[in-house]
Amino acid sequence: MSSKPAVATKLFVLDTNVLMHDPTSLFRFEEHDVFLPMATLEELDQHKKGMTEVARNARQASRFLDEIVSGSEASIEEGIGLYSKSRKSATGRLYLQTRAMQGNLPETLPSVKVDNQILGVVLSLRQEQPGRAVILVSKDINMRIKARALGLPAEDYFNDKVLEDTDLLYSGMRELSADFWEAHHNGMESWQVEGHTWYRIRGPLVSQLLVNEFVYLEGESPFHAIVRAVDDRSAELQTIRDFSHQKNNVWGITARNREQNFALNVLMDPEIDFVTLLGQAGTGKTLLTLAAGLTQTLEHKRYSEIIMTRVTVPVGEDIGFLPGTEEEKMSPWMGALEDNLDVLNKTDDAAGDWGRAATQDLIRTRIKIKSLNFMRGRTFLNKFLIIDEAQNLTPKQMKTLITRAGPGTKVVCLGNISQIDTPYLTEGSSGLTYVVDRFKGWEHGGHITLARGERSRLADHAGEVL
Predict the structure, then answer these.
(1) Angstrom distance (rounded) from CA 116 to CA 150
(2) Largest pairwise CA distance in the chain
(3) pTM attached to this predicted model
(4) How far apart are the C-alpha atoms of 413 and 387, rounded to whole Å?
């Protein structure tokens, strides 16, 4: 048998942070081989203690390695096949370092440091296998810079990224071309149900539309609609409710722009169980969501209470342990909730001070603040669940939270993917980006990217120039 196919495959040397970020990375390199230096295993061992996400991932990576190594009859020197353990997705082999490998590292790089030991292994492998691509994979930018300075190919670990470019992320709406009606008038049907006009259209655009995507056409006669059904040949559009008009206000709040109007339509729709709202600071994500939650909880009695949770990642230094119950401990993180409740409370002009105080007490009894740390194993029935700052969640944490929803519960995720405070998470690998991409086109899910800041002229200008 010729050795040509073996040379065509690459050898990827994994840094520890790749395994701690995604333990399944061992099985993500398809037909290529994976090499783990002893320094990587050593670091994995140091990080396995604790209850953090990183520690859990380190333990899971160790379990995977134990399964692969103990279940194989091949020697580690020859490499262990990953085919059976990876559910037949990886056909490469796993190699572990079994002997000292120094490489000719410059004297300026002390070999005591783990990063430099891994670089030494990569150098040594390149010298031993000159005809083969040996590539370092690391999430550490400085490590990749050092590798390139030594003339070694280095790559980021891309498999966790949902999208290469977040500009391509689904926005939840589509502007129709000016000739839309001419291009789609053949065989078009129209009817009315409960004050909404429905259109069944056929034409070139149908194949691109997604269920619950908003379409709009501005001009002399503006047209705003939501796609309710799509099949191979036709799509059904339904005109939406105009929440910018005072008669349709939601807890005294009206939509100030087109995107906010779209957002209120999905938030108030009982058929939509999962909503994601993306947007910069001041676009009204929390205010619109709370207004919709209060209206449907207190007036329509659709949900029994509002549950609000958020990821407690501090922007500055941590302020240490907080006294009190779960609710009291979470209250410093819930400034956003307080600010928005102040706005919502002022919308009732007719009530007077006593009426407003009574309303405020009623609202307080219906909004529960929960910590993410105690969500495992819970089931929420008929609740309006708001997950704030969702861009700081990993895809795995996002799954844990969304699967808490029982019958009759609506989940709303809010976030701004350009404000990520969690280490190792990027715009492309955030759990929020992940769910937006995975849920698009689902008949009970809705998404809107809010564009325009409505906070104040100062906040808008700061967002642009700073």
Answers:
(1) 11
(2) 89
(3) 0.76
(4) 5
Take residue 174 and report the two structure tokens written for it: 């589509």
Q: Report pLDDT digits (tens) over 303-342.
A: 999 998 877 655 445 556 667 776 676 666 666 777 787 7
Count other Cβ atoms within 10 Å, centred on residue 327.
Answer: 12
> In the structure encoding, which two tokens stand for residue 214, read together?
């908003």
Q: Which domains occur in the chain, in start order?
A: 4-155 (3.40.50.1010), 166-239 (2.40.240), 254-465 (3.40.50.300)
Q: What is the pLDDT of residues 40-82, one digit of tens each?
A: 999 999 988 887 778 888 999 999 999 888 877 777 778 888 8
Distance CA 383, CA 360 (A): 20
HSE-up of 191 (CA within 13 Å, CB side)? 4
What average pLDDT does the segment 149-166 reach?
Answer: 76
pLDDT tens, position by position, 267-308: 999 999 999 999 988 888 999 999 999 999 999 999 999 998
**Which residues on neighbouring strands pair with residue 278, listed in sequence order?**
415, 449
